[in-house]
Amino acid sequence: MSKPEGHGTIVASAGVTDDPTYRGVAPPLWASDTFEWDGPEDKPDYDYSRTVSPNRDLLARAIAELEGGKHCAVTNSGQSAALLALLQLEPGATVLAPHDCYGGTYRLLQGLERKGLVRPLFVDQNDDDMFAMALQQDVRLVWLESPSNPLLRLVPIAQRCAQAKSVGALTICDNTLLTPCRQQPLKLGADLVLHSTTKAINGHNDLFGGALISNDDGLAEQIAWWANAAGLSGSAYDSWQTLRGMRTLPLRVARQEETALKLAQWLEGHPQVAAVHYPGLESFPQRALVEAQQSGPGFMVSFRVNGSVALFAKAPELITLASSLGGFATLVCTPASMTHRGMPPEAQAEAGITPDLIRMSVGLEDADDLIGDLSRGFAAL
Ligand code: PLP
């Protein structure tokens, strides 16, 4: 049978006939850390779970198919997927990263810089001149994040990948915010795609995981080698659970996105809102780019309030003040003091991560209830 391409089909059919013992429809959890050998020279396909795991392989195949990629390394967090990507570089290699990237990416790059392992250049990747100038500094890896977290700024992925290739640099795109259901960076020229599967791919706020997807056999082999050597792979249990959560990914994304648009439109008309950042709004400044590289605007909205974010964020009863995203429950956070607190204040200011900013990950609740709850936040200002 040819490989399915429809996202619904991929998530519904993954591993359905993979239980050789009882022919269960839902794939079992092969929790064993180790597997029997026939003889000292007869290494089985699955020998030790840090190296290879049937549950991890099932999940990896499904994520690779969703991204339109050949290979996927499933890791134990989004950050270990990031580290795994950076381990592919020579010591001291220059990494060109967005000045408004996810705070954990910023922290990791800076930590590795302090040890002399990478040389990060943080630039506004929407500034053509700055990007082109930075690229001349022997850049080995271009780190893309589109849309950015928390400001939902888009980067022209195909253009930046082509520029990176022209100087022999690899590109990685963090696709966590949109999921493969809304953007497929490999098709736009990226060499690697990163996911924090902790977020929408699992979707149930109950585990950590990551994924690193590629099309290049050699690169994938090196990635698998390092995942094993450094112990960065995801556990069998988390892989099993993530595949279970992923069964509903296309449905969840569609519903969350529909609600996000309603909330963004409502927020845009609110007198206590200074600005709304959401790629689905008519007023979004990069609409053409949304059309060119995304198949939908996603479920993340950020907005600036006129008043105290602390008062606003504490008032809702349904919406929770917490720092993850992509799950079933709507969460808000104040990036300046929460997700991006690892970024020095000057870097936050330069990236536009100001104290009045609220990031909202829209979940599966009903839109009207969420609007009622946001109103409670505004009433508290
Ligand atoms: N990338 C993005 C865009 C994120 O938002 C996060 C976490 O919030 C990560 C990567 C890191 O993922 P994890 O928390 O699974 O390590």
Automatic annotation (TrEMBL):
GO terms for biological process: cysteine biosynthetic process via cystathionine; transsulfuration. Keywords: Lyase, Pyridoxal phosphate. The modification N6-(pyridoxal phosphate)lysine is found at residue 199. It comes from the Bacteria. The keyword Lyase applies. Its cofactor is pyridoxal 5'-phosphate. The keyword Acetylation does not apply. One of its GO terms (cellular component) is cytoplasm. Belongs to the trans-sulfuration enzymes family. PANTHER family: CYSTATHIONINE GAMMA-SYNTHASE, TRANS-SULFURATION ENZYME FAMILY MEMBER. This is O-succinylhomoserine (Thiol)-lyase. The lineage of its organism: Bacteria, Pseudomonadati, Pseudomonadota, Alphaproteobacteria, Sphingomonadales.
